[in-house]
C-alpha cells in the first residue's frame, strides 16, 4: 500500500516533507530488513515521531500505528501493530514473490473531535477537524523490495536466457525481448530447428554465444543503462546475475555511474568469458579440420 | 486418493506457446481432448515435476457442454486439492499452465472455449496482463481464488458465499481487480452485505450495482486505513450503501 501524493481533507504528517501538512513534525518507521531461515524479517522495527499530540493519542489508545506488508503478486497483505519499542516481524518467504511493499501508518482508533495541532501548516492552522475512526493521521510510504526466492529451482542456477522458436516470424529476423525473468531470443523456425540440433555440441557453443547471447546481452544492457538502478533491480530478476558477476570482476557493487558508463558490448563479452574471440579460434580450428580444438593438442 | 507431484510448464514451453499464439490457438481449437499438440510446436520436456505433492483429482465435465453446471463443484474440488500448496506456487504462471494445459485441459476448454481467438488464450490461459490480473483472469486460477477468498469457516455452510459468487461471478469480479481484495475480511464483509441485500430484495437488486460497490469500498479506503476496518464494520457500511441505492432507485421510479 502506498499513499503517494494522495490528498486528504485534513492535515496528515507525511514522511515526505513536501507532502506533509505539518511544519516540523516527523513520522517514520525504522527497521532492519533480513532474510533468515526462509523468512522475510523486519527486525527491530519501531516507529518514530516527534509530534507530541500524536504520541499522546497513541498512549491514550486513540491512535494506532501499523506496518503494512503487501505483495500484489501473491495476493498477500497484512498489517502488524508496531510501537516505539523494537519488535520483530517475520513472514514465511513462501508467502511472497517479486515486489513487496512495506509501509507504516498511524490511524484513528476512534472518532476524534476538534483535532488541532500548533504544528499544522498555515493553511490549516485556523481550523479544527473532526477525525473519524480509521482515518489516516500519519504515513511513511516506506520501501519496495524484491523477493527472488524460488525453491523450485532445486539449487540449479538457471540461465537468464531463453532461446525460443518463432513460427509466426516469416522474416529471417532474430528478435530480442527482456521479460521480468529472462532475456528472450526469438529465432525463426528454420534457424531454431538448426540451433536445436546443434546446441548440445561443445564445438558450437562459443559461436552460438557470439551470434545470439552477446548481441542480446549488449542490447538489453544498452537499453537499461540510463534507467534508475533501483527500478532495474525491481523490474528484472535476471539483473541480479549481472550484478553478482560485476562484483566478482571488479570487487565492488555496480552503481548508477558504472552502469551508465560501461561499454555494453565489452562488458557482455567479459560477463560471458569472451566467447567472441574464442568463437574465432573455434572457427579456425573447424576450417583447418581440427574439430576438437586445443584440447587435442594437450 | 493417490498423491501426485505437481508440475510446472517449462519456461521454454510457456514462452514458445505465447510467442506462437496464433498457432497455439489454432491447435487448441482443433484439439479439445488432450494437449498432445504442444509437441508440434515444442519438442523438449513440456512439464517438469516439482517436489510438492497433492491428492490427485479429476474435475467434472458437463455432459451438456455447459460448464456452469459443474463450475461450483469443480471450484471446490480444485480448492480442496490445492490449498495446502505454498502461496508462491499457487501464484506462479507455470503452475497454472500445467493445470490449464495438462491436468485440467478438457475442463479449461469447456469453461473457456477458445473459438480461434488468440486474445482469449493470451488473457485466460496465460498471465499476459500481469501476475495479479493473470490470477483473476486465468480460466482455472480464478476458480481457485474465488473459493479461497470466499470460504468462511464461521458459517454453517462454509461455501455459502462461494456459491453466491459462482452463481454470478460479477459479484466478485469487480472486487478482485482492487488491491483491498488482498484483505480477505474485507471481501467477506462485502460479499455478506451483497448477499443479505440480494436475499432481501431479489429482483429489485440492481444488476449494475456490483461495480458501484467496488468503487464505494475503494473510496472508503482512500482516506481511511481499510486494513483496520473489521469485517462486521465493512458489512454494515456496504449493506447501508446498497439499501440506500435500492431505495433511491425506488423513489426515482
Could you please describe the fold and organization of this structure?
The complex is a heterodimer of chains A (298) and B (253). Chain A is of the alpha+beta class. Chain A has two domains: 13-147, no CATH class; 161-297, no CATH class. Chain A has helices at residues 52-59, 189-198, 202-224, 229-235, 239-250, 256-261, 264-271, 275-287; strands spanning 13-14, 27-36, 39-49, 63-71, 76-81, 87-92, 98-108, 112-115, 129-131, 136-147, 161-166, 175-178, 183-188. Chain A has a five-stranded mixed sheet with strand order 1-10-7-4-5. In chain A, strands 2-3-6 form a three-stranded antiparallel sheet. In chain A, helix 3 (202-224) crosses helix 7 (264-271) and helix 3 packs antiparallel against helix 8. The model of chain A has no long low-confidence stretch (mean pLDDT 90). Chain B is mainly alpha-helical. Chain B folds into two domains: 1-148, no CATH class; 169-253. Chain B has 15 helices and two strands. Chain B has helices at 11-19, 21-30, 38-41, 68-82, 87-90, 93-103, 105-111, 118-125, 131-137, 141-148, 160-167, 170-176, 184-201, 209-223, 231-252; strands spanning 3-9, 47-55. In chain B, strands 1-2 form a two-stranded antiparallel ribbon. The longest helix of chain B has 22 residues, at 231-252. The mean pLDDT of chain B is 93. The A-B interface holds A 1, 6, 8-9, 64, 66, 68, 70, 72-77, 79, 92-98, 105, 107, 132-136, 149-152, 154, 158, 162-168, 181-182, 184, 186, 196 and B 8, 11-12, 15-16, 19-23, 41-43, 50-51, 86-92, 131-132, 135, 145, 179, 181-183, 222-229.
Amino acid at each position: 500500500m502506498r499513499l503517494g501524493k494522495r490528498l486528504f481533507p485534513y492535515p496528515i504528517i507525511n514522511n515526505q516533507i513536501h507532502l506533509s501538512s505539518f511544519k516540523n513534525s516527523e513520522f517514520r518507521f525504522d527497521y532492519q530488513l533480513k532474510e533468515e531461515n526462509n523468512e522475510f524479517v523486519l527486525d527491530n522495527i519501531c516507529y518514530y515521531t516527534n509530534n507530541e499530540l500524536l504520541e499522546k493519542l497513541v498512549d491514550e489508545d486513540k491512535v494506532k500505528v501499523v506496518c503494512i506488508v503487501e505483495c500484489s503478486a501473491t495476493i498477500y497483505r497484512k498489517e502488524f501493530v508496531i510501537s516505539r519499542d523494537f519488535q520483530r516481524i517475520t513472514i514465511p518467504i513462501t508467502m511472497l514473490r517479486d515486489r513487496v511493499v512495506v509501509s507504516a501508518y498511524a490511524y484513528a482508533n476512534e472518532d476524534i473531535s476538534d483535532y488541532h495541532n500548533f504544528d499544522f501548516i498555515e493553511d490549516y492552522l485556523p481550523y479544527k477537524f473532526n477525525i473519524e475512526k480509521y482515518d489516516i493521521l500519519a504515513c511513511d510510504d516506506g520501501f519496495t523490495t524484491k523477493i527472488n526466492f524460488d525453491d523450485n529451482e532445486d539449487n540449479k542456477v538457471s540461465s537468464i536466457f531463453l532461446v525460443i522458436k518463432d513460427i509466426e516470424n516469416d522474416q529471417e529476423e532474430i528478435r530480442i525481448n527482456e521479460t521480468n525473468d529472462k532475456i528472450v531470443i526469438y529465432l525463426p523456425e528454420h534457424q531454431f530447428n538448426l540451433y536445436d540440433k546443434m546446441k548440445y555440441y561443445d564445438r558450437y557453443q562459443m559461436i552460438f554465444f557470439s551470434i545470439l547471447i552477446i548481441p542480446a546481452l549488449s542490447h538489453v544492457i544498452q537499453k537499461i543503462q540510463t534507467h534508475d538502478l533501483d527500478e532495474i533491480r525491481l523490474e528484472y530478476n535476471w539483473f541480479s546475475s549481472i550484478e553478482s558477476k560485476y562484483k566478482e570482476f571488479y570487487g565492488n557493487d555496480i552503481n548508477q555511474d558504472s552502469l551508465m558508463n560501461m561499454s555494453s558490448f565489452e562488458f557482455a563479452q567479459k560477463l560471458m568469458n569472451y566467447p567472441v574471440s574464442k568463437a574465432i579460434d573455434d572457427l579456425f580450428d573447424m576450417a583447418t579440420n581440427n574439430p576438437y580444438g586445443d584440447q587435442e593438442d594437450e | 486418493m493417490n498423491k501426485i507431484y505437481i508440475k510446472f510448464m517449462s519456461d521454454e514451453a510457456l514462452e514458445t506457446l505465447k510467442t506462437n499464439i496464433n498457432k497455439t490457438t489454432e491447435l487448441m481449437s482443433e484439439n479439445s481432448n488432450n494437449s498432445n499438440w504442444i509437441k508440434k510446436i515444442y519438442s523438449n520436456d513440456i512439464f517438469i515435476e516439482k517436489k510438492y505433492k497433492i491428492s490427485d483429482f479429476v474435475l467434472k465435465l458437463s455432459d451438456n457442454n455447459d460448464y456452469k453446471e459443474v463450475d461450483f463443484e469443480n471450484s471446490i474440488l480444485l480448492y480442496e486439492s490445492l490449498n495446502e500448496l505454498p502461496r508462491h506456487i499457487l501464484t506462479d504462471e507455470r503452475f497454472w499452465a500445467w493445470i490449464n494445459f495438462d491436468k485440467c485441459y478438457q475442463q479449461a476448454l469447456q469453461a473457456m472455449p477458445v473459438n480461434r481467438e488468440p486474445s482469449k488464450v493470451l488473457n485466460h490461459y496465460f498471465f499476459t496482463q500481469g501476475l495479479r490480473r493473470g490470477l483473476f483472469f486465468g480460466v482455472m486460477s480464478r476458480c481457485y481464488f474465488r473459493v479461497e477468498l470466499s470460504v468462511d469457516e464461521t458459517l454453517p455452510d462454509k461455501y455459502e458465499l462461494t456459491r453466491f459468487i459462482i452463481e454470478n461471478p460479477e459479484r466478485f469480479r469487480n472486487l478482485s481487480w482492487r488491491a483491498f481484495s488482498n484483505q480477505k475480511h474485507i471481501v467477506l464483509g462485502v460479499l455478506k452485505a451483497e448477499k443479505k441485500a440480494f436475499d432481501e430484495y431479489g429482483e429489485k437488486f440492481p444488476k449494475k450495482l456490483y461495480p458501484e460497490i467496488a468503487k464505494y469500498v475503494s473510496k472508503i479506503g482512500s482516506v481511511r486505513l481499510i486494513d483496520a476496518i473489521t469485517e462486521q464494520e465493512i458489512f454494515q457500511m456496504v449493506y447501508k450503501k446498497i439499501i440506500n441505492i435500492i431505495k433511491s432507485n425506488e423513489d426515482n421510479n
